[in-house]
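Lecture notes, unit on binding sites. The following record was shown on slide 14. It pairs a sequence with magnesium ion.
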Amino acid sequence: MTVKPLISAHDLASRAKAQRKQNLELIYNTGMGHIGGDMSATDILITLYFAILNIDPRKPNDPARDRFIMSKGHCSGALYSTLANRGFFPVEDLKTYMQPLSKLNGHPDRNKIPGVETNTGPLGHGLPVAVGTAIGAKLGKQSWRTYVLTGDGELQEGSNWEAAMLAGHRGLDNLTVIIDRNRLQQGDWVEATNNLEPLADKWRAFGWSVSEIDGHDYDALLETFHSLPLEKGKPSCIVAHTHKGNGISFMQDHPGWHHRVPTEAELTEALQELGEKA
Ligand SMILES: Cc1ncc(C[n+]2csc(CCOP(=O)(O)OP(=O)(O)O)c2C)c(N)n1
Ligand SMILES: [Mg+2]
């Protein structure tokens, strides 16, 4: 597949800065959301949607499109901002986030939002669905790829490992899992609740090829996505080392900011840190 980046690494970074601000205001205005995980996933989402995925917002159901599944569905604020900015629905609609009768529910719904491939929110279901779509593409001899973004705490769900085992067994080199490795779960460190390490070796043992990168480094993200599959005949796992609350000093790496909502003063401080201009 030929990938044609729409914008450079520098442009991706300034787009991400603007989107982080938009995402913060979204959560402040609605009084709900998962800001920490939104901020850790933003650079990965921006890179995929603006430089990597073979998608057309005007044809969200094009059979030839790449499939992206946001398995960490609680971070809907980051997904909706990305989809709106990429043109899947009007940016204006973001104002309805989690309001009564809005299509923009706390957890993404594929029947309501163009560009959402499957419903997520209950953790541990994105990868099993992604394995299914990747098998479907292989059976149909289709060249489109499947990408799935999981949380690291989410990997404590056993369903992921059953899916990982099947993907390895089937040699799904059209499938990529990106792990948002921010080391935090809901309210505590992942390692304190149920240790995942040695994480990369676990995936290798299940038959995957693994790359570990800085999930906030656009050059690393672009280079790794462009080199997929990491190994022919194997599914690819990208362990993206990230920071929950990335970009905002008082939120970063702080368990309390899993789903805290900023006060007006905190919002002002966060927006200032992100810079007046995009
Ligand atoms: C099956 C299931 N159990 C519990 C939850 C509640 N929950 C929402 S987010 C979360 C923590 C997820 O941590 P992680 O996957 O690391 O996400 P991130 O750090 O990226 O926000 C939990 C336990 C859920 N959504 N689904
Ligand atoms: Mg996490």
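Take-home: The first helix runs from residue 9 to 30.
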